[in-house]
Amino acid sequence: MADKLLKREDLGKLIGSVVGGGGVFVAPTIDARQVVFKPVTKAEEIVTDYIVARNSYKEYVFPQTEVVADYTIGKDGVDLRSRKVEPKETVIFGARPCEASSLSALRAVFTWDFIDEFYTKREDKTTVISVGCTKADEACFCTTVALSPETKTGSDIYLLETESGDYLAEAVTDKGRAFIKKHASVFGAAGGEKAKKLFIPEKIKGIDPGKVAEKLSDKGHYEDPVWAELTRKCIGCGACTFVCPTCHCFDITDEGTAFEGERRKNWDACQFDTFTLHASGHNPRDLQYKRWRNRFNCKFSFYPNKFSSKGCVGCGRCIRVCPVRLDITEVMEELSK
Amino acid sequence: MSSYESPVKNNGCACGAPSPYLPVRATIERTTRISETERFFVIKPSDPLLLDYAPGQFFMAGIAGFGEAPISVTSAPGRKETFELCIRSAGSLTNALHRLGKGDAILVRGPFGRGFDLDEMKGKDLLFVAGGIGIVPMRSLIKAVLGGKGYGRLTLVYGCKTPEEMLFKDELEEWKDSGVDVRLIIDTAYPGWKGPVGVVTTLIPDLEIREGNTLAVVIGPPVMYKFVIMSLDKKLLGPEDIFVSLERRMKCGLGKCGHCQINSAYVCQEGPVFKLSELKGMHEAF
User: Fold this and answer.
1) Looking at the domain assignment, is residue B92 inside a domain?
2) Is A84 exposed, middle or buried (0-12, 13-18, 19+ CB in 10 A)?
3) Which residues of A touch B247 (CB under 8 A)?
4) Alpha carbon of A215: minimum distance to chain B alpha carbons (Å)
5) CB distance A252–B257 less than 8 Å?
6) Domain count within chain A
7) B176-209, pLDDT tens digit by residue?
8) Nearest beta carbon to residue B22 from set A80, A116, A261
9) What three-state secondary structure class fits B255?
10) Quick one: B140 and B222 in the same domain?
11) Is this complex's ipTM strictly greater than 0.85?
12) Range of the structural domain that residue B94 is part of
């Protein structure tokens, strides 16, 4: 229940309190004329008139590049030291309900079997405050993948904008309740403020997620010429994977001089031809359509089956960023036939 | 959260603390070049936990500044101080590894993945089919089997491009003496070679295979599997009777980075050893 009120004029106070306490306040802001998630220090930096930020906030729990160890090479040999993960308290403000569902998908990968503390410690320190959408664009398809602007799962605190530009707040998780308690001075009692109407996008006609899942469960679909036909124009730039809130593949590389350097985890993309290239020259996914087919299956079959998590949240980022206008929903539609 | 129960938990791997990405220091006790492109290493890890490996498992071996690569263990399990790797020079890291000598440091993480189930092989005739450097992980298994008791007849079919690429020639003789039916073949005629010439599959029709009591283990380059499996099928060895070990590009070894993923399986954790029946419908396996 949205029983708290966060006044727009108190946002600055909230940011000050988080940042003053040594934390990071990430919110949609303008960078190079685009709306992106970035750390802010002032309320004026925050943008409220946006659909979704161009980047996903996953980079604050799973950085694009992260040092996992340092090494020095000297006369006495090699010294390799693990980096300690000591993340700051991080608040993600202004996430959309669709992308809030992505953290559980990332967590599933980073905690099955071996536990990757570089991820878990960051996520543990992260509070997600989402804001229900009052508008959408033609790339939004959350309702087609069974989410909506009303979805609260994945958010710690769920906000609704009011007619006067304030926020009605609802604590969804214990973490959210603790956050509201800690910042009680800015979360007052709500008193009948009226929330703006949420914009619920229509489900895309012609897409039947059940049918897509059914088709993907039969591995015979691999040989279907539809994959090559629909995805021939893909240039393998990997942009879709970088903006995707659930994509999580990474490379490990050593970067430095001959005497010292860092071992880093860097984002990688299954759309690159070297991603699966063996040292022998053999490549199990040697053509671009096979790489695209893999990513689609990863989202709608492999990961949902393996981890019972959502592979696609319908945020539409991959559609907006694609330089050749390859639209994942067109492929979903084709597979629904 | 995961519906999949991994056969390998953090135990049996020294990579739990402080970070699974931090390798263990090891020392090269001995190294010999054993072919034009392969070098053999005897490695002593500073942490004895790394010696708790099974045939079929692998290590991430590396050098600071060059990175890491997945390398199959080639020694028998149960050793007290060292393990053995055999590394082909194929890129910048493996070339650098080839420049290392006795006493040099090497960084290793592991052992990773699921190895061979020796218990399931007890009482069975075993047919080992190796192509090229597929003999490297196969050697660990053959040595484990020869060191144990209760296995049936043992046959090794091993094919290479040239006799010079054939690895562990002395040991092949020893295995023959221990009762293994060793059959060797090379791809094309070569001066001095008196054995058969052709692909490894051509040796399979002549083998006497006891149906229902034979397990086959196939390790080789990706192109080999399909044809070997077809030949084994004619010998009435089906998906439940064949084990394979898959090669993949790997970076983490921990089931995270995604490079080795085929369909829903992370080869580094759920493999690299699979029963053929587990790969049913996995189109990119070979």
Assistant:
1) yes
2) exposed
3) 278, 280, 282
4) 13
5) yes
6) 1
7) 999 999 999 999 999 999 999 999 999 999 999 9
8) A80
9) coil
10) yes
11) yes
12) 24-112
